[in-house]
Amino acid sequence: MAAGAGLNARDREILNDIIRTFILSGEPVSSRSVAKGGRHSLSAATIRNVMADLEDLGFLTQPHISAGRVPTRDGYHFYIDALMENRSVPAKARRTIDETLVAGASGAEEMMSSASHLLSRLTRQIGIVMTPTVGRSTLRAIDFVNLSGCKVLCVLVGASGFVDNKVIETPEPIARRDLVRISNYLTDHFAGKTLRQIRDELIDLMAEERTKMDDLLGRAIDLAREAFAGRGNQAVLVEGTTAILNQPELSDLDRIRRLLGTFSDKATLVRVLNQLVEGPGVRVVIGKDSDLTSDLDFSLVATSYGVGSGAGKLGIFGPSRMDYQKVIPIVEYFGEKFGQALGRTFGEDIDALEQ
Hints:
single chain, 3 domains
């Protein structure tokens, strides 16, 4: 931010020191404690003057007259943008993410469930994973697989790599070779279009005279109509609310109730996450940046996984006093690897079903 452009190296080092100390301790940081650290070779009086200047710039605030200072929302943002040096994922966390996503590749639903738990465990914050916007997702492929009798499994895979499965009841059994031809026809015809566009086209196709369609095309339209019916709702999985209850920010029951209330309205949570997290990269939302974080003075660190307008979202939610140096790289790496793992899962699921 522009206000931080005028900070000299000494000011930056002291601000960095204060923020790192507060993240670790949760206690307001005094000039005396900074001087005692011995990292700046400055007197407590000099450091106190620097802290006063940083407060004037909006990077620090003093909760009480007799207390030390704590970072503000602007202070955290400046720390993240300009002061945070180490942005690498710890080797242990990297291994855990890689091994868990490979081991959990038994299905997209299971991976979604385990992802929020893993995010919470790695960061000791609340893990959030939201499914892609199916209605806005661009279709990559559609496949129909015989299960038994008149039951057919429809597998939709979006451009984001997310897989959606649905079992369809057909009036009569359909031969496997016909299902392959239907899958190929629908993929060729609809790939690259959103599910909403596909539903609109299906309505037009169904309105055509049936005499203009051969039997296979008619069955393809019927299967597609069932496959795309009722799609579009997003799910959000939240894990780890109990993991942060022992933090000082949640020392009173009223704040705990407000925290739980934040996740009780899933529809609102989905809407807010879609508004806050768009496009590539990690988004960091702190305190008054959003209604989602302002009430509790919490932070959201989130990213998209997959590609396109229908990409899903994942991230962590917790007190603003979080270890951004650790959390941001983990969220970024997790989003990248999770999208790749979902893409692999699609291929493995289809191969296994068709054997």
